[in-house]
Amino acid sequence: MMLIAISGVIAVISFVFSLSFSYFLIKKMINFKYGFDLHKKDKIKVPEMGGLSPLFTNSLLIPFLAPIFLTPIISSGIIGIIDDIAKLSPKEKLMLLFISGLFVGGVFYEYGEINSLSYIIGIAVGITIFSNLTNMLAGFNGLEIGMGVISSIFFSLILFLKGHILEGMLCLIFSCSYLGLLVFNKYPAKVFPGDVGTLPIGAFLSTIAIVSNEVVPFIVIMLPYLLDASLKYYSAGVMSRDEHKPTTLGEDGRLYYAGGYLSLPRFILKYKPIKEPELVLIIWIVGIICGIFGILVSMFL
Question: Of 38, 132, 199, 237, which is most buried by a Cβ count within 10 Å?
Answer without folding.
Answer: 199
